[in-house]
Amino acid sequence: MDRETLYELRPAEFERLCVEILKTLGFESVQLVGGPAEGVDVIAQKEGRPVAVGVKHARRLSPANLRDIVLRLQANAYEAKELLVITSAAVTNGDIASASIPDLSSKGVSVRIFGRDNLLKILAKHANVEQAIVPPARNRSRRQQYALWLGVISGLASILASLSMSFFFDRQTQAPLNQRIETVERAIGSLKNLEQDLTDIKNDMVDTERSVKAMKDEYAKAKELEKLTEAQFDAVKAALRNRSWQQTVLNYVLGFVLGIASSLTASVIYSRWKQRRALAQ
Question: Taking the model in full, what pTM does it have?
Answer without folding.
Answer: 0.62
